[in-house]
Amino acid sequence: MLGINPLRLAVLAAISLPGLVHAADTTPAADQVALMEQAKSQRIVGIAKKTLPVDARPAVVGEIIVTRILGEGVETKSKPAEEGDWVVRNRCPETGNEQYLVKAAKFPKRYGDPQSKPDAEGFSAFRPIGQDMNYFIVSRQQGDFHFKAPWGEDMVAKVGDAIVQTPSDTSDTYRVAAASFKCTYEIAKPAQE
Fold it and tell me: In the chain, how many H helices and how many E strands?
């Protein structure tokens, strides 16, 4: 396979030879974007909105958030937090109420204003604004695969997980664990499987 563009190989694997991209392979950052484009062309993409309440607190500059999914372990690790970033905690016991870092510029567009005063840990309640997100469900045919998340960390997408994309920023395409997707998103238009 030497001399073959890894992006082209990954796209061909996802399109022509489902299941060829395995969890042991690490593929370039654009792969999940290419997979979303392929899913759109196959008309298997739906629309979902994150609508269930979350808790969030201002991040400490330099803080690194390790997202852990109950029963799966580490999902991803953030870059060091910068001024104005937020730590978001899902209210989803099925996933262990996982936490993740949201950049300062994206947080107000996704979560708006606090709905409560901060608790002892600094978390306030927020209600997601419910932006339409494109999504498709990773099929058995596709199998598990690795890719680079928009924030630069390796991520694994597993069968049953959702790949979601912000329509206004196609590079903002990432994995949401199956249990987390079911727990925190509402389906506006179901994806075809």
Answer: 4, 13
